[in-house]
Amino acid sequence: MSLIIKGGTVVNADRSFRADVYCEDGVIKAVGTDLDTPGDAEVIDAGGQYVMPGGIDPHTHMQLPFMGTVASEDFETGTAAAMAGGTTMIIDFVIPDPEENLMAAYRKWRGWAEKACADYAFHVAVTWWDDSVHADMGTLVREEGVNSFKHFMAYKGAIMAEDEVLYNSFTRALELGAIPTVHAENGELVWQLQRKLLEMGITGPEAHPLSRPPEAEGEAANRAIRLAQVIGCPLYIVHVSCRQALEEIARAQAEGSRVFGEVLAGHLLIDESVYRHPDFDVAAAHVMSPPFRAKEHQAALWKGLQSGTLQTTGTDHCCFCAPQKAMGKDDFSLIPNGTGGVEDRMSVLWTHGVTTGRLTVEEFVAVTSTNAAKIFNIYPRKGWVGEGADADITVWDPAATKTISVKTHHQKVDYNIFEGMEITGLASHTVANGKLTWANGDLRAVRGAGSYVKRPAFQPVFHALEKIARANVPTAVARS
Ligand SMILES: NC(=O)NCCC(=O)O
Ligand SMILES: [Zn+2]
Ligand SMILES: [Zn+2]
Questions:
Q1: Contact 360, 16 (CB under 8 A)
Q2: Residue 226 DSSP label
Q3: Does 149 reside within a domain?
Q4: What is the ipTM of this complex?
Q5: H or E element: which one contains 84?
Q6: CA 150, CA 247: separation in Å to the nearest integer?
Q7: Phi/psi of residue 107, each to 5°?
Q8: What is the pTM of this model?
Q9: 325 in contact with ligand 1, CB cutoff 6 A
Q10: Which residue's alpha carbon is at the smallest distance from atom 5 of ligand 1?
Q11: Which end of the chain offers a freer environment for a tag, N or C, measured as fewer CB atoms within 10 Å?
């Protein structure tokens, strides 16, 4: 099974150059000029196009059971839609209920994901604490290739992790060489504001952003960062949506901390006015947490991405259809939180990032693929077009255009938050594990063709942090 991509410009995060790319048995075997074409090889003409590492979306929730329902997009449909947009790998989340055994939850999610068309991995959420969680974190890292643990600082009464859980889990993660990640929002504050707004009679989706102000996110980001600094572990903050959280990350980085930040395509482009839409279904379709913010935050997030304060882009793809959103018709706090975007992330980023001059093409590759691969320690197997890497490639046509619409998207959800957006820059072809899965509008994704990707522990920053810890071991004072 071989395939050759001819005549394009290879773009990696460090440089671009003209080359052909030859793939065999799921691996890139050669990158060079004027490569021979074996007789049986499938040929892709990439003339005038870029040949880039397939996108990695580090934040999705396929078929997530959440807020009394289950996300409409499953691992098969979601990874197929991803490949229509040039994304060849997702990192999803195992989210055990409080008291639920971590390994049992992990096995359940692994079973659901077997039908994935593209490669996938899992962050595992720590929502509670006891000795079994401590032990299972060890098993997950050492035997199952999990190298990141998620903590929800919001969703009080459900999956929220209190500070005690954060402390124990961050400490254990450091010992294992796994990165703690957080959804940073002060869950107590959100809870209190939700009650207050409902008492005031503000029951519609317009109350959603009011109950989750940027200050609640900034406070939680700072708390997680300070805990990580004292414990001495790295930290990855998911879906940074506002200036307040961004500033906490920038300050921590300036203090020498290993804090990574992720931003969602939606938070870069959509503002909070959507929650005041007169049609409940439209306003509710945008209910996600943290919410879309005032415009000043989008400008700040773009600068965070440009400056390197934020390193990755995700979608938090978590789809609920209108009848599901209607569960919160009379109480906004019951609207299932989540929006889609896994198919659109790369073209939206290209249109508003590269064509506007905010990002170079190499930076585009970094923030859509390579940085996630590096942070989660699967680089250069993923996130790189080079000999020996997995043949996960997107052939990118910078001149192609379309208008995003729910009528034409491949995502299994009845709304598109980017509806009507005119896009320039699209995946013309997507290659996953050496197989052509998307070719000029023809989706050829195969159920179950994706594999679980094990991620080794101790990505490079752990070795640096270990040296700092060794130099700062607390000592007792010997007194007579
Ligand atoms: N983001 C969201 O609203 N739903 C999915 C769960 C989460 O990431 O917080
Ligand atoms: Zn979240
Ligand atoms: Zn999420």
A1: no
A2: H
A3: yes
A4: 0.99
A5: helix 75-84
A6: 21
A7: -65, -40
A8: 0.98
A9: no
A10: 338
A11: C
Domain that holds residue 157: 54-383+453-462
Residue 376 tokens, joined: 């989660």
pLDDT given for residue 310 in this prediction: 98
Tell the residue number behind the tokens 């700040």, with chain if given.
300
Listed as ranges, residues in the chain with pLDDT below 70 are none
Span 3-30, pLDDT tens digits: 999 999 999 999 999 999 999 999 999 9
What CA–CA distance (Å, rounded) separates 16 from 5? 15
Alpha-carbon gap, residue 255 to 247, rounded angstroms: 12
129 part of a folded domain: yes
Q: What are phi and psi of 122, to 5 degrees?
A: -130, 130
DSSP state at residue 354:
I
Enter the tokens of residue 181: 């990640």
Residue nearest to ligand 1 atom 8, measured at CA? 316
Ligand 2 centre and the CA of 176: distance in Å?
A: 24
- How high is the pLDDT of residue 1? 83
Helix, strand, or coil here: 7? strand
Q: DSSP of 38-99, one letter per residue?
A: -TT-EEEE-TTSEEEEPEEES-B-TT-EETTEE-S--HHHHHHHHHHTTEEEEEEEE-PPTT
Q: Tell me the C-alpha to C-alpha distance, in Å, between residue 367 and each of 53, 172, 193, 218, 371.
A: 11, 29, 34, 23, 6
For ligand 3, the distance from its centroid to the CA atom of residue 23, given in whole angstroms, is: 34
Helices (H), 289-413: 295-307, 322-325, 345-349, 361-365, 371-375
- Distance, in Å, from the CA atom of 463 to the CA atom of 468, rounded to the nearest integer, reads 9
> Is the Cβ atom of 61 under 6 angstroms away from ligand 1?
yes
CA dist., res. 283 & res. 437, Å (int): 34
Q: How many domains is the chain partitioned into structurally?
A: 1
DSSP 474: -
Q: Is 183 helix (H, G, I), strand (E, B) or coil?
A: strand
Q: Any idea what the CATH number is for the domain that residue 371 is in?
A: 3.20.20.140
Q: Check pocket membership of 187 for ligand 1, CB cut-off 6 A.
A: no
pLDDT attached to residue 338: 98
- Judge whether 13 lies within some domain: no
Does residue 427 fall inside a structural domain? no
Q: Which tokens in the block code for residue 240?
A: 């940074």
State the distance from the centre of ligand 3 to the C-alpha of 317, rounded, in angstroms.
7
Instruction: Convert the pLDDT of each residue in 140-168 to its tens digit.
Output: 999 999 999 999 999 999 999 999 999 99
Q: Which residues contact 233 (CB under 8 A, 6 or more apart)?
A: 170, 171, 173, 174, 179, 180, 465
Half-sphere exposure of 168 (CA within 13 A, CB side): 16
Ligand 1: atom nearest CA of 154 is 9
What token pair was written down for 402?
A: 């379309």
Q: Ligand 2 center to residue 417 CA distance, Å?
A: 17
